[in-house]
Amino acid sequence: MFHTKKTSKLPYFLVAPVMILLLLFSYLPFPYTLYLSVNETKPITGELQFVGIKNFKRLFRNKDFWESLGNTGYYVIVTTILVIVLGVIVALILNSKIKGTSVYMSILFVPWIVSDVVAGFCWKWLLNPDFGLLNALFEPFGIRASNLLMKPQYAMLSLIMVTVWKQLAYSTILLLAGLQNVSNDLIEASKLDGCNGWQSFWRITFPIFSPILLVTVLLDMINFISQSGLALVLTGGGPLRSTTTLALYLYDEAFDNFKLTNASTISMMMALLNIVVVCLYFYTNKKSREKVD
């Protein structure tokens, strides 16, 4: 009765700021990045010259690209596994209606709301070889925490540890939302049928919970593929390029070497990786639905 033209347009006005930001910073840069990736900058004039897939061929012959791709794969896979496993455990604990859940949730959320730069500098201070707090904590065990950032074999593990610490809250919230969709009546009925805790989880909780789990894995992997802030502040890609992911390689090419066409080519490869992850998600989701049906 009171639906006027003015009120019917209200949702569009509310969504408009977000859509404008997405258009300016997400959708419009993509075609321009694609345009740069198939062009080359002339040395003297700085003009762009169309070269087709030449930049991609050059990238595939670059050993730094393959090293960065390997680092990215290792970082994404290991971090995703740790975040998901710990997230499921924490979500199950919080879903068990323990006392002080809101307090634990607030503490858990603190790392996630801190920016990557601030978190990176905090951990860099904690791991400082001269006055880092972790050195004092681990010294009785004969462990120098400073070695975690100074040695190639430990630097990536340190970056993974900090990323898990920061990302755990986000994944836990999504997983907890999935667990809360499982009716307690179903759990109680399974216990009456003789199922133990593990059997109830695997046969009742997991099938209902799995769609949210897949979405969380997808979002985490996309986030980790594009992650650059923590690594840039914490390790800078070192030592000896041991933590140089594709995101950091792109940053170096764009802002240190000023090779925008090369950086755009790397960006397109990262977009392709994200597309592959999304396709795997749809394939896995389709198979799980077919299995349930």
How does this structure look, described?
- With 293 residues, this protein is mainly α.
- Helices cover 75% and strands 2% of the residues.
- It has 15 helices and 2 strands.
- Helix 11 runs antiparallel to helix 12 and helix 12 packs antiparallel against helix 15.
- It is globular and about 80 Å long.
- The protein starts with a helix and ends with a helix.
What can be said about this structure in brief?
The protein is mainly α. 75% of the residues lie in helices and 2% in strands.
Quaternary organisation of the protein chains:
single chain
Shape: globular
Topology as a string of helices (H) and strands (E): HHHEEHHHHHHHHHHHH
Q: How many separate helices?
A: 15
Q: Enumerate the strands of the largest sheet in spatial order, edge to edge or round the barrel.
A: 1-2
N→C terminal distance: 44 Å
Helicity level: over 70%
Biggest sheet layout: 2 strands, antiparallel
What is the SS-derived class? mainly alpha
Mean pLDDT: 84
Determine Rg (CA atoms, Å): 23 Å
Uncertain segments are: none
